[in-house]
Design goal:
By secondary structure, this protein is an alpha+beta fold. The protein folds into three domains: 48-60 and 203-279 and 492-516, Periplasmic binding protein-like II (D-Maltodextrin-Binding Protein, domain 2); 81-202, Alpha-Beta Complex (Dipeptide-binding Protein, domain 1), CATH 3.90.76.10; 283-489, Dipeptide-binding Protein, domain 3 (Roll), CATH 3.10.105. The protein has helices at 4-27, 29-37, 70-79, 127-138, 147-150, 240-248, 264-267, 298-306, 310-315, 347-354, 368-383, 395-403, 423-427, 448-457, 463-480, and strands spanning 51-55, 84-86, 93-95, 98-103, 108-113, 153-158, 163-168, 205-211, 214-219, 232-236, 254-256, 274-278, 283-288, 322-324, 360-365, 388-393, 409-414, 483-489, 491-495.
Length: 516
């Protein structure tokens, strides 16, 4: 029997999860069918044509064990599912494949699985699948980038046909949200990489085919959801004008965050197209090389920030669908530090620092909208005395150069800023690429105070204490400026009439495709 103290501690959390689960189910009614009847509904009109989604980049992998890029995560989460999902508005973790997740002592969680859940192959989900997946992801031999989020699990112990107890070797504030990693069949968890999507899933769709530039998803007969009414085609169309013309011609149905604001007025209302937006849990930022001159000096980094009129860019090139950023965490996030002031726009003061510097290079992606923004930033820096050459690179090449430290400035976006502990992956000193640690600290930010704050915030479950620690961390980063937060962009969707009900979640995922 649980103690009164433990029962009291669980009750408020259970109430919060109940409300959050309701919100998640409202955006993905397919899951509600599973809750109601415990099995997938196979009804649906097979003659419905697929919904086509156009994207500016290409899917790099459909293997959820290796998916980290924004598009890869969006697509793989349509095919696979984790023990928990994310509430579409608050982004708090809520049960998904799991029926419930509850404390089982100070260093353990008890996970109850939903009854009757089957993989796309028809194989029943069980505790051994959960344990095999988590153990495989934690194995260095698999080399999964998700190893960092499961390495704290010391043991996964099946207890009965639908129960798993997870024991942790170290305290980790994000224990529950870490369980969002997709669950695979036990016999497939250690398979070699499967970039074409061959792995058995639990999501509302299965991969029908995959080729360069196009992925076909078919409605899944089994999984966590009833069968969707139609399939989905994710098509890579690199040119922005071509994406817009495809929508106008009725050959595409959705362009989620794939068109620049300048194009939107010409699309809205034509052919029944609608444009919708919502604030996004993301941040676009300017990455500095902190190990190499001239950006190794904080006064240079501050001068760069003050030479950029971020409010003007947000209002013009982003069509007013963005909010200037004072920190990496967006307003509305529970850990956002609202008391950190914006760096003022002061090009005259910046010129005193920047005019004497040698020319620098600003790296960005080949996406047209990103390239336009990078050129506008370069022009503003040029007006303040710093000569900047903009170089656009394919995303894979861009990230490889950043990992190698071969850059001075780069424009990047962190598209899914949900759990603040993710910032440690990008800014903890132990995560500098090539130095033996885990992470992508491409800025080469090595402040010992940041390491202490990340470690402390990641080891406590006390929300108030975590908020205080992350507030101190945001203050430290505002002072040291390893990167320059620029703005938080809205998620903007252009949809055809048949996809007009589509709504992205706060982090921009596509779960409502299953309910169209």
């Amino acid at each position: 029997m649980s103690s009164p103290r433990r029962a009291a501690a669980r009750t408020p959390k259970a109430a919060r999860w109940s409300a959050a689960r309701s919100a998640l189910l409202s955006t993905m009614p397919a899951i509600a069918g599973l809750v109601a009847c415990g099995r997938a509904d196979t009804s649906g009109d097979a003659s419905e044509p697929p919904v086509e989604v156009v994207a500016s980049t290409e899917v790099a992998t459909l293997d959820p064990r290796y998916s980290t890029r924004a598009l890869d995560v969006k697509v793989t989460r349509l095919v696979h599912a984790g023990l928990v999902g994310l509430d579409p508005d608050s982004l708090e973790p809520v049960p998904l494949v799991a029926r419930s997740v509850a404390p089982a002592g100070d260093d353990a969680l008890r996970v109850e699985l939903r009854d009757g859940v089957r993989f796309h192959s028809g194989a029943a989900l069980g505790p051994t699948d959960v344990c095999a997946t988590l153990e495989a992801l934690a194995d260095p031999a698999l080399a999964s980038p998700h190893r960092a989020v499961v390495r704290a699990i010391h043991a996964c112990v099946p207890e009965g046909p639908l129960t798993v107890v997870l024991r942790f070797r170290e305290r980790r504030a994000s224990w529950v949200s870490d369980l969002e990693v997709p669950i695979l069949r036990a016999e497939e968890a250690r398979r070699p990489p499967a970039p074409l999507g061959e792995l058995d899933g639990l999501g509302p769709f299965r991969v029908a085919s995959a080729a360069p530039g196009v992925v076909h998803l078919a409605p899944a007969e089994t999984g966590i959801a009833p069968r969707p009414r139609q399939g989905v085609v994710v098509r890579t169309v690199r040119d922005e004008n071509a994406r817009a013309l495809r929508l106008l011609a009725g050959r595409a149905d959705l362009a989620p965050s794939a068109l620049s604001p300048a194009i939107l007025p010409a699309l809205e209302g034509r052919g029944g197209l609608v444009v919708r937006s919502r604030p996004g849990a993301n941040v676009t930022y300017l990455l500095f090389q902190n190990d190499r001159a001239p950006t190794d000096r904080v006064e240079v980094r501050r001068a760069v920030v003050r030479a950029i009129d971020r409010a003007r860019l947000a209002e013009t090139l982003l069509g007013g669908r963005a909010q200037v950023a004072s920190t990496m965490l967006p307003p509305g996030h529970w850990a956002h530090a609202a008391d950190i002031p914006l760096e003022p726009y002061d090009p005259a003061a910046s010129r005193a620092v920047l005019a004497s510097l040698p020319p620098v290079t600003l790296l960005t992606s080949t996406d047209r909208a990103r390239l336009v923004l990078a050129r506008a930033v370069a022009q503003m820096l040029g007006d303040a005395g710093l000569v900047v050459r903009v170089v656009s690179l394919d995303l894979g090449v861009l990230l490889a150069r950043l990992d190698a430290g071969d850059f001075e400035l780069a424009s990047l976006q962190l598209p899914e800023l949900t759990e603040p502990n993710v910032l440690s992956w990008f800014f903890h000193p132990r995560g500098v690429p090539g130095e033996g640690g885990e992470g992508r600290n491409r800025a080469r930010f090595r402040h010992p105070g940041a390491a202490s704050l990340f470690d402390a915030a990641g080891a406590t479950h006390d929300r108030a204490e975590r908020r205080r620690l992350y507030g101190e961390l945001q203050t430290l980063m505002a002072r040291e400026l390893p990167v320059a937060p620029l703005w938080h962009e809205d998620h903007v969707v252009v949809a055809s009439p048949r996809a007009a009900a589509f709504r992205p979640s706060a982090e921009g995922r596509w779960g409502t495709l299953a309910a169209l």
